[in-house]
Amino acid sequence: MPGYLADLAVPGALELAFVRSPFAHALIGKVSGPAVTATELGVGDLRLGGHGVAPWPWPALARREARFVGEAVAVVWAETRAQAEDLAESVEVEFEPLEPEAPLRLFERTIDAGAVEACFQRADHVLERTFSCARQTPLPLETRGVLAHFEAGRLTLWSSTQIPHILRRGIAQALELEESAIRVLVPEVGGGFGLKAHVFPEELVAAQLARRLGRPVRWIEDRRENLLASVHAHDNEVLMRAAFGADGRVLAVEADLRCDVGAYSVYPFSASLEPATAASAIFAAYDLQGLRVSARAVTSHRCPVGAYRGVGTNTAVYVTERMLDLIARHVGLDPLEVRRRNALRHLPCTTLGGRELDSGDYLELLRRVESVSGYEALRREQAKARRHGKLFGIGLALFNEHSGTGQSEYRSRGIEEVSGLDACRVRVTAEGRIVIHTSSVEIGQNHAPAYRRLTERMLGVEPGRVDIEEGDTDVCPPGTGAFVSRGAVGVLDAIAGALRLAGEQDLAPGTDVTCSIDPKQVFPSGAHLAVVEVDAVTFVPRLRRYLAVEDCGTLIDQRTVSEQIRGGVAMGAGKVLLEESAYGEDGQPLAATLLDYLVPVAADIPRIEIEHLVSPSPISAQGSKGVGEAGTIGAFGAVANAVADAVAPLGAELLELPYGPQRIFAAIQLATTSKQKKGRRPGG
Amino acid sequence: MNVKISLVANGLEWAGEVEPRLTLADLLRDHLALTGTHLGCEHGVCGACTVLLDGQAARSCLTLAVQADGRQVTTVEGLSDDLLPRELFQCGFCRSGFVCSAEALLRREPLPRAVELPELLAGNICRCTGYEPILEALSARLPG
Ligand code: FES
Ligand code: FES
Fold this sequence. Notes:
The complex is a heterodimer.
Chain A: E1 14-20, E2 26-32, E3 36-37, H1 38-41, E4 65-66, E5 72-78, H2 81-90, E6 92-97, E7 105-114, H3 116-122, E8 125-136, E9 145-151, E10 154-159, H4 164-175, E11 182-185, H5 201-213, E12 217-220, H6 223-229, E13 233-244, E14 250-262, H7 273-281, E15 290-299, H8 311-331, H9 335-342, E16 349-350, E17 356-357, H10 362-373, H11 375-387, E18 391-400, H12 407-412, E19 422-428, E20 434-438, H13 447-459, E21 466-468, H14 487-504, E22 512-517, E23 525-534, E24 541-551, H15 558-577, E25 608-612, H16 630-647, H17 661-679
Parallel strand pairs in A: 1-12, 10-11, 14-15, 20-21, 24-25
Antiparallel strand pairs in A: 1-5, 2-4, 2-6, 3-5, 7-15, 8-13, 9-10, 9-12, 13-14, 16-17, 18-23, 19-20, 19-22, 23-24
Chain B: E1 3-9, E2 12-18, H1 24-31, E3 50-53, E4 56-59, E5 72-74, H2 95-108, H3 117-120, H4 132-139
Residues 39-42, 44-49, 59, 61 of chain B line the site of one FE2/S2 (inorganic) cluster.
């Protein structure tokens, strides 16, 4: 569909604006002015079935109390957004500030596998550290937006979303409509990164108001709302203990994760998303004899935490890779050697955390990083730079991640709202054009070349004869949407299946076939290397070089893969160096503009070198694996380690993301003062 | 109290009455149907809303429509697609801003040094591409 949501020209559309809570926790008293509140709106909650989580739904509008700064309390509308904002300003809400509530535990996941105790007893060394992974936000350049129109008993909802069918289901449930009475249309989407894979309160409000007012109703989020009240990511604290030998071999790991999931459980993933994915991703690329993880989701008076490119794997890879570097330092080995000694060797295999790794060659990934980066020469360069007083660091990461989560996996986790299926419908028009509809949506991944190439390969149809139409629940087959890097897994398999069926009908005009797939998770992997220089005076870290060796199985479209990796790395680098959705003690957000929430610009990102290794998946039909998240995940390890390595000669140890100048300075100061203390004599 | 203004947008004259508080971005998008100019932050940081005002780059979210009175405005719709073609981008939301920033840059400084491009374009945020395709396309135009 041409144009982004805000570009749609809909005559007579009313523009919405929300009245939002300025308090982290407050009772809502009288609301005066031309606003609609929760009671008047009359919309049910987005209920989450199962998940093993305590129900803690995010209401369309706050009812009795507001639970975080930015939570929508009332809504107004007008002919233009500017007028609507004036109206919102004129609304007076009597808030009665409350003390913060004690954190509630919504979800817990534990893993206890192998001989943890015995390993810790037998190990030469044990290291224990507490890491923290900052609260951040996905920040697509286009904010959220929705346009609802109710006509002749049917609701048409344009939404900048990654999940048209899940959105249809959520709206149907909350508004008590039949799913067939709703059509979700997805215009061009200006980036999602997981943020747009949720059903949001504002979407329920817009849909309900369209039904009540009989006019099209639009809401375009502004950046402040996006930073305060869409979804955040991470905010995890991890206490990790590792038992290892003098040879750097890690025997067992214990980790305790506390995930602050904010004020509510998000739809459709619930509060289980971060802890569940992080738990199984800890040390997942390494050979352990024991693993014990306890991960829990707890509430706070902050923005709800939801999906973000990489989800809990970012935290897991960050803490795993940082720990491995600390271990390397402890036993006096090179970080690359420590990874070589610990990497999983025989794939396929099942990890202690329960990941069924389908294919990959982790030692080869490390070899490629070593040779392509010129690792030895790089270390020599580092030694020289250090002699000249430079803070020059090299960081590595080896990791895998899950892609293409299917129905059985979601059901086993008790998640009903996510179908888990991927589907494709292929039609042949009267003119002989092939039309591909999928359950996915285009959010910048550039589906068309891959789909066209597959069609050409399978059916010998020239690419110019193939049209791709996604993001319309009336014509696309139901499925899961575009997240958890499922495009190259289930979606592609479904397309291949539907194309095969269409081929069996000789692509006769009128052919109309659908294929639905329940994908099984496959595990792309990668080894990344980053070079960072920290300014010795300002402590500003600069990313100087980045190499990503990726293995996402069979390459369907190499250019698309490289683009996803490159963009992902840039994002991950931002997450490590700059981005933080900080809050003050009083629950007030400290990052409400892009001057406080910093993201990387062109000058922050070097050219990113990308190498491909291909270990075809024996599970997905094309041998391919998802690639949307790998870049970001790798950067959480490699960039973090590079900054830490740069300042390590000063005795500083970095544990808390993001690794910006303040944190670096604090770590250096801490190192200096503790050195002074150690140097002092007792009583002296 | 509305104010009468007139301007030339992409070569076409436009005259009308606007609220003094109306931004140039909203004028272009809502009154002139030039929706190619995007809004990513509305507080002057992301660069998505960049247009040319008398040939110079300007944040249309921070410029008031009345400030454009009597001036030439060029938006992405008025510029060639060849400078930074759509295929270089992913979601494409940042593209209009990059096209206008790059155009303004090349008008001001026809031969920037390739190594300076990242700094020269640091006023535009892209969340998808990692910037390299954009920078490469521009440096490919420079001699040497
Ligand atoms: S919208 Fe103008 S700078 Fe972001
Ligand atoms: S291509 Fe998506 S923001 Fe630049």
